Amino acid sequence: MLAAVRQKLGQSSRLTCRRLTTASLAGAESSSAVNSAPVSFSTQGLSKPEGPLKAVSIAQPVYIPMSSLIRPSKDDNPADRLATLDPFVFAAPIRRDILHLCVVRGSGRKIRRQKGSGMARLGDGQSPMLRGGGVAFGPRPRSFATKLPRKVIEMGMRVALSARLKERGLRVVESLDWPGNKTKNMLQRVEELGWGKTLFVSGQPDVPLGLQLASSNLRRLDTTTVQELNVYDLVKWPQVVMDVEAVEWLEKNLGKRAVVDSDGDASA
């Protein structure tokens, strides 16, 4: 008897809920049918699109104030000008796993504990006893570089540039031409700007001679070209100063258009 009463109550409650749901859905369908009339492309004077519509994401460009390596005049303030950066290159999502692939080879973590496993003592994964480990008494100097796919390396560059910009360690200047070759003047200017360990990246085929001579005796400064720039340099140096030509080269070779072109060539 009690089971029959419970079954009746359950059926009535389910029927009530179903009726309410049907009524609400019917009301929503009628209201949507009244409010949203079918659009006619002929009446609106529009041409009917061919094929499926594609969603295009609109990314806002990144703006940072310009800097000046040479001491500017009183009337000229380089911070009043802004450098426009490609968000695909300089605002990429931070992927620490990609940075690890591009920089680190092998971990120093001990594979298993020293005692209690019943097996022999073993250190890290670079032990020559393991398959894929280091080489015992191998030739010196030896390279621990690994071959990575080109797309992974390019993604690592974008992630490293974005991380350096997010940490406010990326500067853009008009030019890296330095008058003279005095290390003292270069050190004074870098201290005025508040730059610590700094890497200068030139977009020219060679680093300007004045900058190279003035910074060669300073351990906290280094120079390179944008063609020789790698992920390790971007991770190692807290401050990265590049000229406009270097920014244009990076946007051309790491930008979205370059990626699309390379994919098209590969598929063809």
TrEMBL record:
Keyword match Transmembrane helix: no
Keyword list, A-Z: Ribonucleoprotein, Ribosomal protein
UniProt-recorded Gene Ontology molecular function terms: structural constituent of ribosome
Gene3D superfamilies to which the protein is assigned, alphabetical: 3.40.1370.10
InterPro entries, A to Z: Ribosomal_uL4 (IPR002136), Ribosomal_uL4-like (IPR013005), Ribosomal_uL4_dom_sf (IPR023574)
GO BP terms in the entry: translation
GO annotation, cellular component aspect: ribonucleoprotein complex; ribosome
Organism superkingdom: Eukaryota
Entry annotated with the keyword Ribosomal protein: yes
Similarity comment: Belongs to the universal ribosomal protein uL4 family.
Protein's name in the database: Large ribosomal subunit protein uL4m
